[in-house]
Amino acid sequence: KMLCFISTWDISRSLLCSVRKSKALHEHASTRKKGGFRYRETNGERRYSGSGGLLSREMSQSSDSNQARNSGHEPFVDEEYPGTATVRLRSVHERIEQLSQQDLSGSWDEVRRKLLWAGGLRDLPDARPGAGYTGHSFNDYNHCDLTTMRDDEADNENEGRVEGMAWSNQLGPGIKIASLPELGAGGSWSTCMIGCNKEPPQDVAHVQFRSRIAFKLVWIPSTFTSFVLVDDAGNLLATGHPKGTLPPIDERRTNFRVVQGSKFATAAADLAD
Protein backbone atom coordinates (compact mmCIF):
# COMPACT_ATOMS: atom_id res chain seq x y z
CA LYS A 1 0.00 0.00 0.00
CA MET A 2 1.13 3.50 -0.75
CA LEU A 3 0.45 6.23 1.75
CA CYS A 4 -0.03 9.77 0.45
CA PHE A 5 0.89 12.62 2.75
CA ILE A 6 -0.68 15.98 1.93
CA SER A 7 0.73 18.93 3.79
CA THR A 8 -1.25 21.89 5.09
CA TRP A 9 0.63 24.01 2.54
CA ASP A 10 -0.59 21.80 -0.32
CA ILE A 11 -4.18 22.14 0.86
CA SER A 12 -3.89 25.91 1.25
CA ARG A 13 -2.31 26.27 -2.17
CA SER A 14 -5.03 24.16 -3.76
CA LEU A 15 -7.77 26.20 -2.12
CA LEU A 16 -6.09 29.46 -3.15
CA CYS A 17 -5.89 28.35 -6.78
CA SER A 18 -9.53 27.35 -6.67
CA VAL A 19 -10.56 30.74 -5.28
CA ARG A 20 -8.50 32.56 -7.90
CA LYS A 21 -10.05 30.54 -10.72
CA SER A 22 -13.52 31.18 -9.36
CA LYS A 23 -12.83 34.91 -9.07
CA ALA A 24 -11.41 35.04 -12.59
CA LEU A 25 -14.46 33.27 -13.98
CA HIS A 26 -16.76 35.64 -12.10
CA GLU A 27 -14.93 38.71 -13.36
CA HIS A 28 -14.92 37.37 -16.89
CA ALA A 29 -18.64 36.76 -16.69
CA SER A 30 -19.34 40.26 -15.38
CA THR A 31 -16.98 42.09 -17.73
CA ARG A 32 -18.56 43.45 -20.87
CA LYS A 33 -17.44 45.53 -23.78
CA LYS A 34 -19.28 48.47 -25.27
CA GLY A 35 -18.28 51.47 -27.32
CA GLY A 36 -14.66 50.34 -27.68
CA PHE A 37 -13.87 49.96 -23.97
CA ARG A 38 -14.77 47.74 -21.05
CA TYR A 39 -17.03 48.01 -18.06
CA ARG A 40 -17.86 45.72 -15.16
CA GLU A 41 -21.15 45.64 -13.33
CA THR A 42 -20.76 45.41 -9.56
CA ASN A 43 -23.65 45.90 -7.17
CA GLY A 44 -25.58 47.86 -9.76
CA GLU A 45 -22.65 50.12 -10.69
CA ARG A 46 -20.92 50.13 -14.05
CA ARG A 47 -17.18 50.49 -13.55
CA TYR A 48 -15.76 51.87 -16.78
CA SER A 49 -12.18 51.87 -17.99
CA GLY A 50 -11.23 54.29 -20.73
CA SER A 51 -10.50 57.96 -21.26
CA GLY A 52 -12.76 60.66 -19.89
CA GLY A 53 -13.89 61.56 -23.40
CA LEU A 54 -14.85 57.98 -24.22
CA LEU A 55 -16.64 57.64 -20.91
CA SER A 56 -18.59 60.83 -21.48
CA ARG A 57 -19.66 59.82 -24.99
CA GLU A 58 -20.68 56.34 -23.85
CA MET A 59 -22.81 57.77 -21.07
CA SER A 60 -24.55 60.13 -23.49
CA GLN A 61 -25.97 57.07 -25.22
CA SER A 62 -27.11 55.42 -22.00
CA SER A 63 -30.58 55.80 -20.52
CA ASP A 64 -28.96 55.15 -17.12
CA SER A 65 -27.28 58.56 -17.36
CA ASN A 66 -30.53 60.53 -17.57
CA GLN A 67 -32.15 58.43 -14.86
CA ALA A 68 -29.15 58.95 -12.59
CA ARG A 69 -29.16 62.70 -13.16
CA ASN A 70 -32.76 62.91 -12.01
CA SER A 71 -32.41 60.50 -9.10
CA GLY A 72 -29.10 61.77 -7.71
CA HIS A 73 -27.71 58.22 -7.94
CA GLU A 74 -24.27 57.61 -9.49
CA PRO A 75 -24.35 54.27 -11.37
CA PHE A 76 -21.06 54.78 -13.25
CA VAL A 77 -17.61 54.41 -11.70
CA ASP A 78 -14.44 55.46 -13.49
CA GLU A 79 -11.94 52.74 -12.55
CA GLU A 80 -8.86 54.91 -13.10
CA TYR A 81 -10.25 57.95 -11.29
CA PRO A 82 -13.03 56.63 -9.02
CA GLY A 83 -13.62 60.03 -7.46
CA THR A 84 -15.14 61.32 -10.71
CA ALA A 85 -18.83 62.23 -10.60
CA THR A 86 -19.31 60.70 -14.03
CA VAL A 87 -22.95 61.63 -14.67
CA ARG A 88 -22.16 65.19 -13.65
CA LEU A 89 -19.13 65.23 -15.96
CA ARG A 90 -21.35 64.23 -18.89
CA SER A 91 -23.85 66.95 -17.95
CA VAL A 92 -21.06 69.53 -18.09
CA HIS A 93 -20.07 68.35 -21.57
CA GLU A 94 -23.68 68.61 -22.69
CA ARG A 95 -23.83 72.20 -21.47
CA ILE A 96 -20.56 73.04 -23.24
CA GLU A 97 -22.11 71.69 -26.45
CA GLN A 98 -25.02 74.10 -25.98
CA LEU A 99 -22.72 77.14 -25.90
CA SER A 100 -22.28 78.83 -29.27
CA GLN A 101 -19.21 80.65 -30.53
CA GLN A 102 -21.11 83.86 -29.85
CA ASP A 103 -21.75 82.80 -26.24
CA LEU A 104 -18.01 82.44 -25.70
CA SER A 105 -17.08 85.64 -27.53
CA GLY A 106 -18.96 88.27 -25.53
CA SER A 107 -17.61 90.31 -22.64
CA TRP A 108 -15.29 88.32 -20.39
CA ASP A 109 -17.58 88.76 -17.39
CA GLU A 110 -20.48 87.21 -19.30
CA VAL A 111 -18.33 84.46 -20.81
CA ARG A 112 -17.01 83.54 -17.37
CA ARG A 113 -20.55 83.30 -15.99
CA LYS A 114 -21.46 80.95 -18.85
CA LEU A 115 -18.44 78.79 -18.06
CA LEU A 116 -19.54 78.60 -14.43
CA TRP A 117 -23.06 77.62 -15.52
CA ALA A 118 -21.72 74.98 -17.91
CA GLY A 119 -19.53 73.59 -15.15
CA GLY A 120 -22.37 73.35 -12.67
CA LEU A 121 -21.26 76.24 -10.47
CA ARG A 122 -23.11 79.27 -9.16
CA ASP A 123 -21.71 82.73 -9.77
CA LEU A 124 -20.94 83.81 -6.20
CA PRO A 125 -18.43 86.69 -6.46
CA ASP A 126 -19.42 88.16 -3.09
CA ALA A 127 -19.32 84.98 -1.01
CA ARG A 128 -16.56 84.44 1.52
CA PRO A 129 -13.62 82.32 0.29
CA GLY A 130 -14.24 78.80 1.53
CA ALA A 131 -17.99 79.42 1.65
CA GLY A 132 -18.82 79.10 -2.03
CA TYR A 133 -16.81 82.01 -3.46
CA THR A 134 -16.32 81.52 -7.22
CA GLY A 135 -15.00 84.97 -8.17
CA HIS A 136 -11.56 83.45 -8.72
CA SER A 137 -12.76 80.74 -11.11
CA PHE A 138 -11.09 81.10 -14.54
CA ASN A 139 -9.92 84.56 -13.46
CA ASP A 140 -6.29 83.65 -12.77
CA TYR A 141 -3.72 81.30 -14.31
CA ASN A 142 -4.39 78.42 -11.95
CA HIS A 143 -8.07 77.89 -11.08
CA CYS A 144 -8.95 76.79 -14.61
CA ASP A 145 -9.82 73.10 -14.16
CA LEU A 146 -13.52 72.35 -13.91
CA THR A 147 -13.66 69.21 -11.81
CA THR A 148 -16.70 67.07 -11.02
CA MET A 149 -16.16 64.93 -7.94
CA ARG A 150 -18.26 62.48 -5.95
CA ASP A 151 -19.75 63.66 -2.68
CA ASP A 152 -17.55 61.31 -0.65
CA GLU A 153 -14.42 62.90 -2.18
CA ALA A 154 -15.39 66.57 -1.83
CA ASP A 155 -13.98 66.89 1.70
CA ASN A 156 -10.54 65.53 0.76
CA GLU A 157 -7.61 67.78 1.62
CA ASN A 158 -4.24 68.06 -0.08
CA GLU A 159 -2.11 66.80 2.83
CA GLY A 160 1.09 67.29 0.84
CA ARG A 161 0.03 65.26 -2.17
CA VAL A 162 0.08 68.14 -4.68
CA GLU A 163 3.35 70.06 -4.80
CA GLY A 164 3.01 73.80 -4.29
CA MET A 165 -0.40 73.56 -2.61
CA ALA A 166 -1.32 74.21 1.02
CA TRP A 167 -1.37 71.13 3.26
CA SER A 168 -4.90 71.88 4.43
CA ASN A 169 -7.23 73.20 1.73
CA GLN A 170 -10.71 72.28 2.92
CA LEU A 171 -12.91 72.89 -0.12
CA GLY A 172 -15.85 70.64 0.74
CA PRO A 173 -18.22 73.20 2.30
CA GLY A 174 -17.68 75.67 -0.56
CA ILE A 175 -18.21 72.95 -3.16
CA LYS A 176 -21.56 72.02 -1.62
CA ILE A 177 -22.73 75.66 -1.52
CA ALA A 178 -21.63 76.56 -5.05
CA SER A 179 -22.60 73.39 -6.94
CA LEU A 180 -25.79 73.36 -9.02
CA PRO A 181 -27.71 70.18 -8.14
CA GLU A 182 -29.47 69.67 -11.48
CA LEU A 183 -26.33 68.32 -13.18
CA GLY A 184 -26.32 65.15 -11.12
CA ALA A 185 -24.81 63.69 -7.98
CA GLY A 186 -21.57 65.06 -6.56
CA GLY A 187 -20.18 68.56 -6.86
CA SER A 188 -18.20 70.87 -9.12
CA TRP A 189 -15.21 73.09 -8.45
CA SER A 190 -12.62 75.13 -10.32
CA THR A 191 -9.53 73.39 -9.02
CA CYS A 192 -5.86 74.35 -9.31
CA MET A 193 -4.12 72.96 -12.37
CA ILE A 194 -0.52 73.12 -11.12
CA GLY A 195 1.04 69.73 -11.86
CA CYS A 196 -1.18 68.92 -14.85
CA ASN A 197 1.83 68.92 -17.20
CA LYS A 198 3.05 65.65 -15.66
CA GLU A 199 1.92 62.21 -16.80
CA PRO A 200 -0.21 61.11 -15.13
CA PRO A 201 -1.40 64.57 -14.04
CA GLN A 202 -0.37 65.52 -10.51
CA ASP A 203 -2.91 68.28 -9.94
CA VAL A 204 -5.66 68.78 -7.38
CA ALA A 205 -8.37 67.13 -9.48
CA HIS A 206 -6.52 63.92 -10.26
CA VAL A 207 -4.61 63.52 -6.97
CA GLN A 208 -6.63 65.15 -4.19
CA PHE A 209 -10.10 64.35 -5.53
CA ARG A 210 -9.11 61.28 -7.60
CA SER A 211 -11.22 62.77 -10.39
CA ARG A 212 -10.94 63.56 -14.05
CA ILE A 213 -11.53 67.12 -15.17
CA ALA A 214 -14.64 67.92 -17.21
CA PHE A 215 -12.75 70.72 -18.94
CA LYS A 216 -9.68 72.91 -18.67
CA LEU A 217 -9.43 76.51 -19.88
CA VAL A 218 -6.14 77.25 -21.67
CA TRP A 219 -5.27 80.65 -23.14
CA ILE A 220 -3.92 80.55 -26.70
CA PRO A 221 -0.45 81.98 -27.42
CA SER A 222 0.96 84.32 -28.50
CA THR A 223 -1.51 87.13 -27.83
CA PHE A 224 -3.46 85.16 -25.20
CA THR A 225 -6.72 86.88 -26.08
CA SER A 226 -8.57 83.67 -27.00
CA PHE A 227 -8.91 80.39 -25.15
CA VAL A 228 -9.69 76.73 -25.69
CA LEU A 229 -11.62 74.32 -23.51
CA VAL A 230 -10.19 70.80 -23.54
CA ASP A 231 -11.34 67.61 -21.84
CA ASP A 232 -9.40 65.19 -19.65
CA ALA A 233 -7.73 63.62 -22.69
CA GLY A 234 -6.76 67.01 -24.14
CA ASN A 235 -9.45 66.91 -26.83
CA LEU A 236 -10.79 70.26 -28.00
CA LEU A 237 -14.31 70.99 -26.74
CA ALA A 238 -14.74 74.68 -27.62
CA THR A 239 -12.95 77.95 -28.31
CA GLY A 240 -13.70 81.44 -27.06
CA HIS A 241 -12.73 84.96 -28.08
CA PRO A 242 -13.89 87.15 -25.18
CA LYS A 243 -13.86 90.92 -25.19
CA GLY A 244 -13.47 93.60 -22.57
CA THR A 245 -11.28 93.34 -19.48
CA LEU A 246 -9.59 89.94 -19.45
CA PRO A 247 -7.54 88.42 -16.62
CA PRO A 248 -4.11 90.12 -16.41
CA ILE A 249 -1.78 89.21 -19.28
CA ASP A 250 0.80 87.68 -16.92
CA GLU A 251 -1.88 85.32 -15.59
CA ARG A 252 -2.85 84.28 -19.12
CA ARG A 253 0.77 83.68 -20.15
CA THR A 254 1.45 81.65 -17.02
CA ASN A 255 -1.70 79.62 -17.65
CA PHE A 256 -0.22 78.32 -20.91
CA ARG A 257 3.22 77.76 -19.37
CA VAL A 258 1.67 75.51 -16.72
CA VAL A 259 0.28 73.13 -19.37
CA GLN A 260 3.15 73.46 -21.87
CA GLY A 261 4.57 70.13 -22.97
CA SER A 262 1.46 68.19 -21.98
CA LYS A 263 -1.59 66.87 -23.83
CA PHE A 264 -3.52 69.82 -22.42
CA ALA A 265 -1.42 72.30 -24.43
CA THR A 266 -1.85 70.70 -27.85
CA ALA A 267 -5.14 72.31 -28.90
CA ALA A 268 -4.03 75.80 -27.83
CA ALA A 269 -0.62 75.40 -29.51
CA ASP A 270 -2.28 74.27 -32.74
CA LEU A 271 -4.35 77.47 -32.78
CA ALA A 272 -1.47 79.80 -31.82
CA ASP A 273 -1.77 83.22 -33.46
From TrEMBL:
Ranges where the record places region Disordered: 30-80
Highest taxon, organism lineage: Eukaryota
Comp. bias intervals (Polar residues): 58-70
Residue ranges with Basic and acidic residues bias: 38-48
Protein name: Uncharacterized protein
Native source species: Rhodosorus marinus
